[in-house]
Design goal:
It holds the Pfam family DUF3892. By secondary structure, the protein is mainly beta. The protein has one helix and six strands, in the order βββαβββ. The strands form two sheets. A four-stranded mixed sheet has the order 3-2-1-4, with helices on one face.
């Protein structure tokens, strides 16, 4: 599947600590963290990948492309 046909994240929600908790996709779907993690792993979502953090938990991060403006932390916040 081409990147331009797959959904990508366009906005995020964060908790009080600034951790990402939910994502809005380019198709307007809202995914909680675990749903988003599963969809990134399965290849449904473009522009992000899953990595194993310290302690062994799986986390989502944006693909490294040298453009800090599209890092997941820099996406707009949605209600």
């Amino acid at each position: 599947m081409e990147n331009n046909t797959r959904e990508h994240f366009v906005a995020v929600q964060k908790n009080g600590d600034g951790d990402l908790t939910a994502f809005k996709t380019s198709a307007g779907r809202v995914l909680d963290y675990n749903q988003a993690l599963n969809e990134v792993e399965s290849g449904t979502i473009a522009g992000a990948n899953v990595f194993k953090a310290k302690g062994g938990s799986l986390r989502i991060r944006g693909d490294a492309d040298g453009d800090p403006s599209n890092n997941l932390d820099q996406l707009p916040i949605f209600e």
